[in-house]
Amino acid sequence: MYASEDVTEIIMQKRLSAVRTVIGLFLLLFVGSVWMLAQTSQAPNSQSMPGSGAPPAFGVAQPTGISDQDIAMLRADLRSKRKQITAQNMNLTTEEAAKFWPVYDQYVLATIKQNDARWAMIKDYAANYGSMTDEQAQSYIKRSNIVDQQLLALRLRYVSAFEKVVSAKKAALWYQVDRRIDLLINLQISSQIPMIDAGQADH
Predict the structure, then answer these.
(1) Domains of the chain, residue spans
(2) Which one has a higher pLDDT value, 51 or 142?
(3) Which of 98, 125, 158, 201 is the least buried, fewest Cβ under 10 Å from its Cβ?
(4) Is 58 a residue whose pLDDT tops 60?
């Protein structure tokens, strides 16, 4: 027999599997297309030359022709799946839901700016991967940290907003669910992006 906490965790993991699939598809298309763009700006034979600075293969065929509109649609789908996972775990009453979801929608809109910066940073990282200087590497770390801190601060601010419309426990539950989804996204992003080649000469 499972303890109630174990059952809750199992259910949570099953529900996260759906958003994990969407995240995986999004990152395959987005990150793959970004690296293809970066590779085309390098020398024609750079992908096969050792030490060329070309990003390593992901083990799958990389997509072609993905547009900014495609990316926007995938991000919208990701936000939709994120909302579904949140709804499945909050167990809100009808009265609570009427107050909770307007605040949630405001929060999601507020995160878009930070996530715009996140995806732009990935594009810049890919574009400069093969010829990254020390200064660019330092800039990447600083920008990455700024985005992380902004998203964390935003989530913390909205805890207070949620506490005005639901109990403190349910506001804390929202924080846990949202943070777990974001950790999952960050983990999959990290798994798709090659590490900096610290051995290459500075340009």
Answers:
(1) 4-192
(2) 142
(3) 201
(4) no
